[in-house]
Structures are given as C-alpha cells and as structure tokens.
Amino acid sequence: MERTTAGGVVVEPCTGTGAVTCALAAEVPGATVAASDICPAAVAQARADAERLGLDVRVFQGDLLDGIPAALRGHVDVLVCNPPYLAAGELVGLEPEVVDYDPRDALVAGPTGHEVVDRLIAAAQAWLAPGGWLLLEVDPSRAAATIRRMAVAGLAGVEVAADLTGADRFAVGRRRG
Predict the structure, then answer these.
(1) Hey, is 80 helix, strand or coil?
(2) CATH superfamily of 9-174
(3) What is the pTM assigned to this prediction?
(4) Which one in 12, 93, 133, 146 has a CA-CA gap of 20 to 30 Å to 172?
C-alpha cells in the first residue's frame, strides 16, 4: 500500500483514546489528521494525548463521521477505523483484558456485529478522495464478509490483510478513480 504523503488527509472515526490517530499523525508529518468518537471521555482523552505528544490532530465528538468537518468530504486519503465489530453474544469467553476494561459500546456493534462496519462502508464513497483507502479492523471471522460488502459498495482492490499475529484482521479497499 502506498503511503499517504504530506498534505494528505487521514480520518479515524471510533478513535477511542486516539492511539491510532496519534501514531498516524507522528508517521505522516504535514498530513491533516482528524478523528471522532461518540464518547465524550474518549474525545477528551484523545485530545489530551495528542496535545501531550505535540501532534496536530483534530478530535471531534460525533457518531462515526458526523463530527468530522464537511469540508473533508471527498478529500480523505485514508479512512481507518477499529470500530465495534462484535455481536452482544460474542462477549462471553473473550479475554478479561478486553471485556473487563473496554467499554461495551467500543466492542459491540449490534445484533450481528456488522452494523457499524456496514455504516462506514456505506459512507466511505462520499468521504474518500478518488483512490483513497478504507482500512477496517474486524474480527477475523468477519473479514471475508466485510470485503464482500466493500466490493458490493463499489470499492476496488478489496482484500484481507493479516495482523502481526497472522490473523486475517484487516479489510482493505480503495475508492475508484
């Protein structure tokens, strides 16, 4: 995958504490980096972390892309997200470091686990610049279904990418053009 260059636009909805957003801002100096989260405490933490690290990151409160400035619509080079992707019944048996510490809303997307991902895929075409990337972290059991959904939505070059443990965890696609 090509790197976003200085002057590029990176957006991360569901940023949580902003760890991914801050890492991206540090890796791509000069990029416009924006993030959002629906949780006020997460927004405050992400802002504080970016400020503490001296990073130029704008963090907005809102559901998915609702808080992101409309001026970025159609200009996003990388839309990256680790959204809630589990169904409620899937919390049973997860590692304690996940279910005991992460807020339930950060884990559970809805009855099927696809609800938030489906909303992001539907919004991607309007937000991505031509050739822009959509990268979603998903449960490995949902990766194949997620790239099928991305292809149906019109994204090109859809594929599953493995995480550092070898698990098929990332669904990747690009806006045509």
Answers:
(1) strand
(2) Vaccinia Virus protein VP39 (3.40.50.150)
(3) 0.89
(4) 93
